[in-house]
Design goal:
The complex is a heterodimer of chains A (114) and B (115).
Chain A: E1 5-7, E2 10-13, E3 19-24, E4 31-37, E5 44-50, E6 53-56, E7 65-68, E8 75-79, E9 88-95, E10 104-105, E11 109-113
Parallel strand pairs in A: 2-11
Antiparallel strand pairs in A: 1-3, 3-8, 4-5, 4-9, 5-6, 7-8, 9-10, 9-11
Chain B: E1 3-6, E2 11-14, E3 19-21, E4 23-26, E5 32-38, E6 44-50, E7 56-59, E8 62-65, E9 75-77, E10 86-93, E11 103-105, E12 109-114
Parallel strand pairs in B: 2-12
Antiparallel strand pairs in B: 1-4, 3-9, 5-6, 5-10, 7-8, 8-9, 10-11, 10-12
Classes of the chains: A mainly beta (114), B mainly beta (115).
Chain lengths: 114, 115
């Protein structure tokens, strides 16, 4: 079974530029999560989708971050414009439908903002 | 709100040494507790979990017991191997609410095992 796919794996941009990350969850998984992992810290949930609806985006900086999950499958996370403090690894995870199912993580996208 | 505190690393051990990584938590009710492992260049993987007090999670020689009285979930392994070198994250999932599947992570503990 294929795991969670993310691209790109690495991205370097200058501040004020825009960037987008893509995630393809495990086939059939209804729930999709985006986490931000800053160096030296644990992952922090940015947004959670159930199918194509948002369940929790309370920690998403909505002035610059946006995310969508069209058709309830793959998802895109965008940052516009980027700030230096956005440098982090962005992790995507998915889980089967049901509140308490295990989350499976992708390899992450490492973003460096210069 | 919910929070997880883990011991700072890095932890450096010789092969076959005993491992303990401390983890304590703050949460209302009875959360579920997890240990995740992140090998170099890879995503987070679930290592073990416990969903109620006094449960013991175990996998690949690692164990952790859910201690409600001390709000702890310490990770242990009797004999570590070089291949166990990784970053270990303690996490909890809240007991109730519409976002119950949300995970709250600790800051991670890097383990380095040498020959």
């Amino acid at each position: 079974e294929a795991g969670v796919a993310q691209s790109p794996r690495y991205k370097i941009i200058e501040k004020r530029q825009s960037v987008a990350f893509w995630c393809n969850p495990i086939s059939g998984h209804a729930t999709l999560y985006w986490y931000q992992q800053i160096l030296g810290q644990g992952p922090k949930l940015l947004i959670q989708f159930q199918n194509n609806g948002v369940v929790d985006d309370s920690q998403l900086p909505k002035d610059r971050f946006s995310a969508e999950r069209l058709k309830g499958v793959d998802s895109t996370l965008k940052i516009q414009p980027a700030k230096l403090e956005d440098s982090a690894v962005y992790l995507c995870a998915s889980s089967p439908e049901g509140t308490y199912n295990e989350q499976f993580f992708g390899p992450g996208t490492r973003l460096t903002v210069l | 709100g919910d929070s997880v505190t883990q011991m700072e690393g890095p932890v450096t051990l010789s092969e076959e040494a005993f491992l303990t990584i401390n983890c304590t938590y703050t949460a209302t009710g009875y959360p579920s507790l997890f240990w995740y492992v992140q090998y170099p260049g890879e995503g987070l993987q679930l290592l073990l979990k416990a969903t109620k007090a006094d449960d013991k999670g175990s996998n690949k020689g690692f164990e952790a017991t859910y201690r409600k009285e001390t709000t702890s979930f310490h990770l242990e392994k009797g004999s570590v191997q070089v291949s166990d070198s990784a970053v270990y994250f303690c996490a909890l999932r809240g007991a109730s609410g519409g976002t119950a599947s949300k995970l709250t992570f600790g800051t991670g503990t890097r383990l380095q095992v040498t020959l």
